[in-house]
Amino acid sequence: MSRKRRGSYDVEYMRIVVGLIRDGIGAKSLARRLGVSKETTREWLLSYRIGGEAALMGERE
Questions:
Q1: Would you state the pLDDT for residue 48?
Q2: Which of 16, 34, 37, 55 could cross-link with 47 by S-S, CB 3.0 to 4.6 Å?
Q3: Is 8 helix (H, G, I), strand (E, B) or coil?
Q4: What does the DSSP 8-state code read for residue 57?
Q5: DSSP 5
Q6: Beta bridge partners of 4
Q7: In the chain, domain spans
Q8: How far does CA 14 lie from the centroid of its chain?
Q9: Backbone dihedral region of 9: left (phi > 0), alpha (psi from -120 to 50 degrees) or beta?
């Protein structure tokens, strides 16, 4: 899993992280393991819940 690309996270990376959280891995422990802030992982999850994968890509309805 690549971590960063040009100062932002790769959409596929965010999708995998969100999937792991949805599968029951805690956002805080996963963030610690991956070296990502827990706030960032929670923002990704919230974006996904609101707008699906399109929201992770920065697209808005």
A1: 93
A2: 55
A3: strand
A4: T
A5: E
A6: 9
A7: 9-56
A8: 3
A9: beta
The token duo for 51 is: 């707008």
Sign of the four-CA dihedral 37, 22, 13, 3: positive
- pLDDT tens digits for 48-58? 999 998 888 87
Name residue, tokens 């969100």: 18
| Sequence-distant (≥ 6) Cβ neighbours of residue 14 within 8 angstroms | 44, 56
Q: What pTM value is reported for the model?
A: 0.77
CA-CA distance, 61 to 54, in Å (whole number)? 9
pLDDT at 7: 47
- What does the angle CA 57 – CA 26 – CA 32 come to, to the nearest 5 degrees? 80
Q: What confidence tens digit (pLDDT) does each residue in 2-60 have?
A: 444 434 888 999 999 999 999 999 999 999 999 999 999 999 999 999 999 888 887 65
Q: For residue 35, what are the contacts with CB-CB under 8 A and spacing of at least 6?
A: 3
